[in-house]
Amino acid sequence: xxxxxxGLVPESYVDGPGIRFTVFVQGCxxxxxGCHNPETHDFNGGRLADVDKIxxxxxxxxxxxxVTFSGGEPFCQPEPxxxxxxxxxxxxYHIMSYSGYNFEELLEMSEKNPDVKGLLTKLDILxxxxxxxxxxxxxxxxxxxxxxxxxxxxxxxxxxRVVLCEI
Length: 167
Description:
By secondary structure, the protein is an alpha/beta fold. The protein is built from five helices and seven strands; from the N terminus they run E-E-E-H-E-H-E-H-H-E-E-H.
């Protein structure tokens, strides 16, 4: 299975808790003003990569305990990310994703797209919401603007409401 990538960061300390492997997907419909990764917006940019090969890179590094999906917009490529997340969950990895969509929008999308639903159910943490330059803050952990939420996905799905993470 192929995925369109903007890039990979094998050992990141800033894209979630612990030492993580970060997958930056290519393509984003949001075009947030002040976006940290505007080069990831073009859906035709980046390069195609084999998801199984990415998985192989992740499991080769014994320091990696978690994987983060960033971008671009990860939920624009839910099928390959759902597949990768499934492989990772089987190995016990912590999975986090960023999305310009809010949690409620993703739930609605998941009703029509089984890969969105599958990906959501495999996430431990979701940072949701579009980056808003007027709410930008360098003091926030793992987020760029105050409107973005750090969501405990399993608990939120269980309770049927957004439950925020304490990190």
